[in-house]
Design brief:
The complex is a heterodimer of chains A (about 130) and B (about 290). In chain A, helix 4 links the parallel strand 4 and strand 5. Chain A has five helices and five strands; from the N terminus they run E-H-E-H-E-H-E-H-E-H. The longest helix of chain A is centred in the C-terminal third of the chain and has 17 residues, at about 110-125. Chain A has one domain: Response regulator (Rossmann fold, 3-Layer(aba) Sandwich), CATH 3.40.50.2300. Chain A has helices at about 15-25, 40-45, 65-75, 90-95, 110-125, and strands at about 5-10, 30-35, 50-55, 80-85, 100-105. By secondary structure, chain A is of the alpha/beta class. Chain A has a five-stranded parallel β-sheet, with helices on both faces. Chain B has about 290 residues and is α+β, with helices and mostly antiparallel strands. In chain B, strands 1, 2, 3, 4, 5, 6 and 7 form a seven-stranded antiparallel β-sheet that branches. The longest helix of chain B is centred in the last third of the chain and has 24 residues, at about 225-250. Classes of the chains: A alpha/beta (about 130), B alpha+beta (about 290). Chains A and B meet through helix 1 of A and helix 13 and strand 4 of B.
Chain lengths: ~130, ~290
């Protein structure tokens, strides 16, 4: 079934982007964009805000936390889901305070991605 | 991991040839450990008693366990323990070598004892090692020169062994080496951890090891050192370091991960410590760099 959400995957790792994109496409999400770092993500959000962004935390140029701050100001309706590696959990509290919608643990488990997107869909339907 | 160490021991002692060892290693997946080996290894029976049961099996159509019970060499509980231990891999190696007549059960048992004595292992340590305790194995096998915070290094290396076995290759073997003069990294994948005890970590690899790690971690056969392959090795190092940070945090040491850096044809970083840990995998090897940043 084709899903209507526009999703962005922001991660400096091509491998992570590829793997997450595959999981999303398997779930029927056809509009999946990619960004290599926080700066590229912020620019893309300005042009056409997606419904959801999976945001890595540790990235060069602009970190996920910095990008989150900018995106909350530019597109408050976009749900930013932080993708945390083991060892970066201490940043999650800060991200949640800054308005991150949820977080998922890397390496990604498909069930976890499905769970968090179901939560987004539920909120969108009630919005 | 003990299988690799014990295999090297057999080879270094001239008990088996490289060809026999390799062929036995190749067979491991399909080898089924016989209860005779298990019972002798567990100390429940002597090699002579196991041989007697094997000879009896040639006369009556009964299983090893049944005959051993009848002869009073094993009790029910021991038999159950043995049945549950049938997947122990160093025993699989022993079985494979015995099957190809590279050694006998007696030689195998004697070699295990020699290994224990040569490495000054207590009964407890040896039992733990045989049961797959990587922490004890590496603590007794890896000899370091004087290094500050040696416990930190040991914990890092022990965790690396577990992560390599889990994600990359179950057949690994570690060796501590001095740093050769004019050492050059073909590829260096590194990551710093900042905080109370800043650390620099990295893998120095050739193309073959790079692609082996990348393919295993990305779960696809990679043949080129492209962006995906580089990311895969970087992500593996990041995952390992992340888990290390969680362990350290549990011990009150707070560290933070920095982004990974991938470089080609570079000398070792000036922060490097006094040793390299060479990691041998199936078909390739790489060096681990771990040092404190002053």
């Amino acid at each position: 079934m084709t899903q209507r959400l526009k999703i962005m995957v922001c991660d400096d790792s091509a491998l992570v982007r590829k793997k997450l994109k595959t999981v999303l496409e398997e779930q029927g999400y056809t509009d999946v964009r990619e960004a290599e770092n926080g700066e590229i993500a912020v620019d893309a959000v300005k042009a056409d805000p997606p419904h959801v962004i999976f945001m890595d935390i540790v990235m060069p140029v602009k970190t996920g936390i910095e990008a989150l701050k900018d995106i909350r100001a530019i597109a408050p309706d976009t749900k930013v889901i932080m993708a945390s590696s083991v060892g970066t959990q201490s940043n999650l509290l800060e991200a949640i305070k800054l308005g991150a919608f949820d977080f998922v643990q890397k390496p990604f488990a498909a069930e976890e991605i499905v769970r968090v997107l179901a939560k987004v869909t539920k909120e969108e339907d009630h919005a | 991991m003990f299988t690799q160490y014990f295999g090297h021991f057999l080879l270094n002692r001239g008990i088996v040839t490289a060809h026999q060892l390799q062929s036995a290693m190749d067979q491991l997946q399909s080898t089924h450990v016989k209860l005779g080996i298990l019972s002798v290894n567990a100390g429940y029976m002597t090699a002579e008693q196991a041989l007697e049961v094997h000879q009896a099996q040639a006369r009556v159509d009964k299983r090893f366990g049944e005959i051993a019970l009848e002869l009073g060499y094993l009790d029910e509980e021991q038999l159950q323990n043995l049945l549950s231990a049938q997947k122990e891999s160093h025993l699989l190696l022993g079985q494979a070598l015995i099957d190809q007549e590279a050694l006998t059960l007696n030689t195998f048992t004697a070699a295990l004892n020699e290994y224990k004595q040569e490495n000054y292992l207590s009964d407890e340590q040896f039992a733990a090692i045989k049961n797959g305790d990587i922490d004890v194995l590496l603590a007794t096998m890896l000899k370091f020169e004087d290094i500050p915070n040696i416990d930190l290094h040991r914990q890092y290396i022990s965790l690396l062994a577990k992560n390599l076995i889990r994600f990359i290759d179950p057949n690994i073997y570690f060796e501590v080496n001095a740093i050769p003069r004019d050492y050059q990294c073909e590829w260096l994948v590194s990551q710093q951890m900042t905080g109370q005890v800043p650390l620099a970590s990295g893998f120095s690899l050739g193309e073959m090891a790079f692609l082996q790690i990348a393919s295993a971690y990305a779960e696809e056969q990679l043949t080129e050192l492209d962006a995906i392959a580089r990311d895969a090795v970087g992500e593996f190092l990041n995952l390992h370091n992340g888990l290390f940070l969680v362990n350290m945090s549990g011990q009150g040491l707070e560290l933070e991960l920095q982004p990974q850096v991938i470089e080609e044809q570079v000398p070792l970083p000036p922060t490097v410590g006094s040793y390299l840990l060479t990691v041998y995998m199936s078909g390739s090897s790489f060096d681990l760099i771990l040092s404190e940043i002053s």
